[in-house]
């Protein structure tokens, strides 16, 4: 049985304990703990430079921590040998900050990169088929598979990046600032797509964002990075119980109020409150 046949049925696909990340003397994370629940969209927020991307990179094994442990699907990522990590690497998909599509490859070819890496035996015709399917799944027209990134709008590029992140049918999805640079409607559409795919495919999502609308609209819980720590994790109403100034300023400021109003308008327009459990 291959690793992809094993579906994680534990409660926490990601468990981080006592994680310290540092560059020389510069400590980014100081013994942080965080658990990500299966099936949730966990929003990860914090000021610029608080280490959101570094945290994601350490979970996917691209950043070696100074100390602490990170388990993904029960596999220790820090202490494991590289060939042990391969078994879990094909169970996550990543949309890096900025998208990072290969500009010399078409969208379809971009989606095929992880497929070829993990399943080199796949026939070209099947690779094309899967790439086209993943492309359409993210709301792009099938023709987009044969376009180069330079021929796409910002929103389309994000969807193409998502198609590549979904190439291996992951259980776990990492999205680093997926709506940055999109107009509000494009961002809201992308959020809706993320929520739909999460629910339909049974994904767990680690979603780094600055976008308050995204947090209110689709995140089940939010983790807040500040002072080199995870200073809070919970639903937004739970976080609001904290008197940490950053949390208060962020979730009680005018932009947060605008995000709540926008979510409520969206819910009224749909004639339902689909995610009422995420009420603020
Ligand atoms: N490879 C590296 N070498 C040295 N310092 C780094 C490296 N990568 C990140 N850093 C530093 O670590 C800190 C955290 O960076 P990170 O990219 O995780 O921030 P972030 O929270 O994602 O910020 P943003 O919201 O702007 O994306 C920053 O001060 C950054 O300069
Ligand atoms: Mg970042």
TrEMBL record:
SMART domains in the cross-refs: AAA
Amino acid composition bias (Basic and acidic residues), ranges on this chain: 262-280
The keyword tRNA processing belongs to this UniProt entry's keyword annotation: no
Gene Ontology MF terms: ATP binding; ATP hydrolysis activity
Domain of life: Bacteria
SUPFAM superfamilies (UniProt xref): P-loop containing nucleoside triphosphate hydrolases
Sequence ranges assigned to domain ABC transporter in this UniProt record: 14-252
PANTHER family hit by this protein: PROTEIN TRIGALACTOSYLDIACYLGLYCEROL 3, CHLOROPLASTIC (PTHR43023)
Protein name: ATP-binding cassette domain-containing protein
Lineage per the UniProt record: Bacteria, Pseudomonadati, Pseudomonadota, Alphaproteobacteria, Sphingomonadales
